[in-house]
Amino acid sequence: MRIVVLGATSRTGLCLLAEARRRGHHIVAFTRRPGTLADVPAPAEVVHNDGRDLDTVRAALACADAVISLLPGGGRRDPHLAAESARILTTAMADAGVRRLVVVSAYPIVGVRPRVAIWILRRVLATPYADVSQMERIVSACDLDWTIARLNRLVDRPATGAITISTGLLAKPRPHSRADSAATLLDLAEDPETARSALNISGS
């Protein structure tokens, strides 16, 4: 598959690049920090852009089979990164005729347990959570084959393959590795049966 990846040099993005290479996918990597790719197997193509230039995104989508966006919610200096990129991306995909889209979101925006931890996270991360919530609304309203992947807390450890995926709230949300998350995102991009769904994901 030819897969366009936004946020490719995030820690999870780097895991995804490695797994995609292992699976034989052709990756077009969007990044604001191309130097970060120096120590990893190079993707087939690198685009130095944050995913908010319509012409650049549209050009990168030529002949693409799927798009995976790992862009985070914005911070104080750039509070609308995820939502703005989602608007550009969904428009560009519609223009280019590319239908498969997987976007990363955050499970705590819908989670209720553990209550204290969720309450703290929503206060501390109010700006990025508001941004990814808006991103979800933009994506779910578009006429594409989208999947929203709400990830629980990510940790830097080896893959175990122990992942829980649910359309409902998670009974016991657990941390999961970035490597497992990367593999799961690729699985979703490869599987059209998960289209038009928001999935909550944690370790098992």
From TrEMBL:
Pfam families: NAD_binding_10
Domain named NAD(P)-binding: residues: 7-192
One of the record's GO molecular function terms: riboflavin reductase (NADPH) activity
Protein name: Epimerase
Organism name: Nonomuraea diastatica
